[in-house]
Specification:
Keywords: Signal. Residues 1-18 form the signal peptide. By secondary structure, the protein is mainly alpha-helical. The protein has one domain. 71% of the residues lie in helices and 0% in strands. Helix 1 packs antiparallel against helix 2 (23-35). The longest helix has 16 residues, at 2-17. The two termini are 14 Å apart.
């Protein structure tokens, strides 16, 4: 359940923080990163507030 909540939070932060990319494109890109197991890059794309609450190592 915690993993699911983290993914939902990360997804939300990415969509909200998408400054130069339209939200649907950013969402699809983020989902493809998760689907490919590239969790580190998906974390890098997250909002700074999210990153401060969940370190990349967790």
């Amino acid at each position: 359940m915690r993993t699911f909540l983290c993914i939902v939070t990360l997804f939300t932060a990415l969509v909200v923080n998408a400054k130069q990319v339209k939200a649907p494109e950013a969402s699809m890109h983020w989902l493809s990163l998760i689907d490919n197991g590239d969790y580190a890059e998906s974390w890098q794309l997250a909002d700074k507030i999210f990153q401060s609450q969940l370190t990349i190592g967790k």
